[in-house]
Amino acid sequence: MAIHYDNADENKGGFTSEQMNALIEGASEQQVRLALQKVLHVMAKLGFGTDEEISGADAVDAIGEVFAEVTEEVLQGQG
């Protein structure tokens, strides 16, 4: 399944849809499971899925960190 998002701006160092799809397609099942586990853990820690208020600043920081960890360490296999 390919994903597409229009916010990829190569000038900001972001991934294009095609680059992200290539990372996902080239990842092993174990890498994809680990990536999903990390993303879901961070979201639960932030309070998603609960009635707790979610801090926007904390969410942005945590999502940025998990995005970097997942793309660099898990999907690209650098970790």
Write the layout of secondary structure elements.
Blueprint: H1 17-26, H2 29-46, H3 56-75
Helix pairs in contact: 2-3
Keywords: Plasmid
Overview in brief:
Keywords: Plasmid. The protein has 79 residues and is an all-alpha fold.
Give a description of the structure:
By secondary structure, this protein is an all-alpha fold. The chain has a domain at 28-79. 61% of the residues lie in helices and 0% in strands. The chain contains three helices and no strands. It has helices at 17-26, 29-46, 56-75. The longest helix is centred in the last third of the chain and has 20 residues, at 56-75. It is elongated and about 35 Å long. The mean pLDDT is 81.
Keywords:
0% strand, 79 residues, single chain, mainly alpha
Unreliable spans: none
Q: Give the termini separation.
A: 25 Å
The percent range for strand residues is under 5%
Helicity range of the residues? 55-70%
Instruction: Determine the structural class based on helices, strands and strand pairing.
Output: mainly alpha
Q: If you compute it from the alpha carbons, what radius of gyration comes out, rounded to the nearest whole angstrom?
A: 14 Å
Biggest sheet overview: none
Q: How large is the count of helical segments?
A: 3
